[in-house]
Amino acid sequence: MKKIKIGFLAARSVIMPKASLYIKETLIMALKEEGVEADVIVEDIGNGTISKTKDKLEKLLLVDFADVIVAVLNPQVAVTFKELLTDLDKVMILIEAGASQISFNDDEDMIFSNTQMYWQLSASMGNWLGKSAYKKVVAASSFYDSGNDQNAAFELGLLSADSSLQFQYVTHMDAGYDVQKLLNEVKKLQPEVVYLNYTGKLAVDVANAFIRNIDIPLATTPFVSQELLNSLDEANIIQTLPWRRDLPLAENEEFLEKCGASGMLHPEIFHVQGYETGKWIAFALSKGSLEDKHNFMNFEWDGPRGRISWNKNEKSFEGPVYISVISNNSLSEIKEITSASLLKETRKNLDQEVKSGWLNPYLFVT
């Protein structure tokens, strides 16, 4: 059995406190399946600020001699370590939400990413709504989620289908909880659908506020945790997502069985990302040294969410986009709506920087 050291930079999150633990569990599980024994050295980086992360990263590389770095980290923070990683010939794989479109790898870059594809999900939702004849659309997000490419991607998706936004509202700009203002605005505008870009419990709170006050279709991206759907009032919600537990794929059913056998009874997307990353590292190891970034570049694998890959031309992580209809808290329909041409065009139109210039160093705001 091959043995490696993995340096694991674990950011904390109020939204999903156990995300890093979930990732580590399935990372190790996947490597064992491929005949790789991993010593995973975990460093807590708190909120993932640059200075603290740099100190922990240097320890993992220069003291612990990690062979590869896995990081639950904002990519805007990660790119500040490009020179260090390049000088030491060490690859870093980020595990993050993917709310902004960032190409990590130039000719000298050692950074890859495994994402939840939030900007792709948003663009696909906009395009789907437009093609489904929704022409009067209001979008809303919190201040915490408003600085990312996913909002711009949603609007680009609408425009690609000859639709457009009536209004885009940002809540939580100050200490006041101003969702009521949003509800009043929606009642006045009378759109055909409202797109809610929120994460965590806040996503549930805002969705329930609509369900209880306005009879209108709601469209969302994932709430981060599938368990949060159980907190919703009974309603029909359209949602784009990268994976669900009940996704009808043989690879997903096999993954769920393995998780159950290991005591992980209710896997989340973070379990999937950890598992995929383990398979990715094993793939690179099978090609040769983990210090050679080229061994990571041609990764392609059929797993719990379908086929994922690293696009070495676009220098980005790719996977399927699904759309689901949740009726009274139960899945009534799910299908794949991935459009390579839509995502390629959206990518061209997105800036490389966070839209507001505001840097939040958490996993879920990238």
Commentary on this structure:
There is one protein chain. The chain has 366 residues and is of the alpha/beta class. 36% of the residues lie in helices and 23% in strands. It contains 11 helices and 15 strands. The strands form 3 sheets. It has a 7-stranded mixed beta sheet, with helices on both faces. The protein has a 5-stranded parallel beta sheet with strand order 2-1-3-4-5, with helices on both faces. A hairpin with a 2-residue loop joins strand 14 (322-327) and strand 15. Helix 5 (118-131) packs parallel to helix 6 (149-160) and helix 6 crosses helix 11 (340-349). The longest helix has 19 residues, at 269-287. It is globular. Mean pLDDT is 88; it is low at 353-366.
